[in-house]
Automatic annotation (TrEMBL):
Keyword Membrane belongs to the record: yes
Membrane-topology annotation of the record: Multi-pass membrane protein
Localization terms from the record: Endoplasmic reticulum membrane
GO CC list: endoplasmic reticulum membrane
Source organism: Champsocephalus gunnari (Mackerel icefish)
GO biological process: lipid modification; phosphatidylcholine biosynthetic process
Transmembrane portions of the chain: 20-37, 44-62, 212-229, 244-263, 333-350, 395-420, 426-445
EC number: 2.3.1.23, 2.3.1.n6
Keyword Electron transport attributed: no
The protein's name: Lysophospholipid acyltransferase 5
Pathway(s) the chain acts in: Phospholipid metabolism; Lipid metabolism; phospholipid metabolism
Record-level Gene Ontology MF annotations: 1-acylglycerophosphocholine O-acyltransferase activity; lysophospholipid acyltransferase activity
Length: 464
């Protein structure tokens, strides 16, 4: 009965059935959270964990059928490693190796040249969750003086039970598309601590509905406009026959539209976390905050004229996970740039085995490097500083936004098209303009600094 209904629904929406199943599953998180609030908030941790594990497994089965065994195997192996190996670096390395190899093997065995919703999609979220769990368990055995403040918050004082790991892994608010959260946060949820009303369910319905409404708006925008800006158009003769300016503008608009696919899922899922209480983030300036599970800063994402601002507002919890468990733990390398490159390489591999991911993240690194140099130049140059603060700034802002989104879309092309032959065809049609622009900017930056920064100030900067 359900299959024909889903087929009809997907046909009427013009979306693939797996995408419809995924979105329905994210939305089902809201009634699940309401059940938890009304009937389970005062129950024991065992009962709540059972509810989270069973509901999450049901959603996984609804989307991926018998392939849910992949996640079950990884959860069980993770638990056994912590239980049998203890708080050792061997546990961390074994967890990292096993979970990443399993994920990459899944990518290899299921790879196609299209973006498919299959079991590897939630599994990449689960991989980070389980690897992070091993790090947090390991940190729990260290002296507090050896840990950073964020490590102290996440460190586990004891090994969790298998049921607790299952509830944490399959929690309906984060299993399918994220966000990332720590087991310590999840334990606080079980204990009823994540609430603005001690001893009572949180007053989070209104903030949750606000995120749902915003996510639904983003989903509506994507649903309406995505048919007009499909990835496949890049590979058509019609696109190649268009004027150069049109091809570039298409990249810009396509990037804005395609990203709403991710924004909508994350913001709607965040609403589920807020409704359950997991999104509670304490009191700041006398106001209760509900952004602990925020994966998007939508206003910053829409208005920031800088690449760094957009990147920092996008997939926030995953970026925070990578910063905490990869970038900051590479401090022993003694080189921030090397740590940054290694972190981006990890993100590349975590996303998949296609060449497009490597090109996307390498381009991101290059763009951010040039942008930082440009910002430093504006700061150090009296002329550019004056111009940036002049009445002309609104015009400058519009120009910034145009180039910003054009070159945000530029690395997204290989990210979404995956394979070498596809992204090479598109890049050739726009003459590798992104590479040329940022390479020229990078080479020109020292000369611009000489021309625009007074000699005295250049000397002071060198001394600093």
């Amino acid at each position: 009965m359900a299959a024909p209904l889903l087929a009809n629904l997907s046909e009427s929406l013009g979306s693939p059935e797996p995408a419809v199943r995924l979105m329905l599953s994210i939305l089902i998180g809201y009634p699940c959270a309401l059940v938890y609030r009304k009937y389970l908030f005062y129950q024991t941790a065992t009962v709540i964990n059972l509810f989270h594990a069973i509901s999450g497994l049901a959603l996984a089965a609804f989307n991926f059928g018998p392939q849910i065994y992949h996640s079950a195997v990884c959860v069980l192996v993770q638990f056994l490693m912590m239980r049998l190996m203890g708080r050792t670096i061997t546990t961390v390395l074994s967890s990292f190796t096993f979970q990443m190899v399993y994920l990459l093997a899944g990518y290899y065995c299921t790879a196609t040249e299209e973006y498919d919703i299959k079991w590897t999609m939630p599994h990449c979220v689960l991989t980070l969750k389980l690897v992070g769990l091993s790090f947090d368990y390991y940190d729990g055995g260290k002296e507090p003086s050896q840990l950073s403040e964020e490590q102290k918050k996440a460190a586990l004082p004891s090994v969790p039970s298998l049921l607790e790991v299952c509830g944490f892994s399959y929690f309906y608010g984060g299993f399918l598309v994220g966000p990332q959260f720590t087991l310590r946060s999840y334990q606080k949820l079980l204990a009823g601590e994540l609430t603005d009303s001690p001893g009572k369910p949180p007053n989070s319905v209104t903030p949750a509905m606000k995120r749902f409404a915003l996510g639904f708006l983003c989903l509506t925008i994507y649903t309406i406009f995505s048919p007009y800006y499909p990835d496949s158009y890049f590979l058509t003769d019609e696109y190649e026959a268009q004027p150069f300016w049109y091809r570039c503008v298409f990249v810009l608009i396509w990037a804005k539209v395609i990203l709403y696919k991710y924004v909508s899922c994350w913001v709607i899922a965040e609403g589920v976390c807020i409704l359950s209480g997991l999104g509670y983030n304490g009191v700041v300036d006398g106001e209760h905050r509900w952004d602990a599970c925020a994966n998007m800063k939508v206003w910053v994402f829409e208005t920031a004229p800088l690449f760094g601002g957009t990147i920092s507002s996008f997939n926030i919890n995953t970026n925070a996970w990578v910063a905490r468990h990869v970038f900051k733990r590479l401090k022993f390398l003694g080189n921030k740039t090397l740590s940054h490159v290694t972190t981006l390489l990890f993100l590349t591999v975590w996303h998949g085995l296609h060449s497009g991911y490597l090109l996307c993240f390498s381009m991101e690194f290059f763009i951010i490097t040039v942008e930082r140099q440009a910002l430093a130049l504006v700061k150090d140059s009296p002329l550019l500083t004056k111009l940036a603060n002049s009445p002309l700034y609104p015009l400058i802002y519009l120009v910034q936004q145009f180039f910003h989104w054009l070159f945000m879309g530029y690395p997204l092309v290989p990210f979404c098209l995956f394979t070498f032959d596809k992204w090479l065809k598109v890049y050739s049609s726009i003459y590798f303009c992104g590479h040329v622009f940022f390479l020229v900017a990078y080479l020109a930056m020292p000369h611009l600094r000489k021309a625009l920064v007074p000699k005295k100030e250049r000397s002071e900067i060198k001394q600093d």
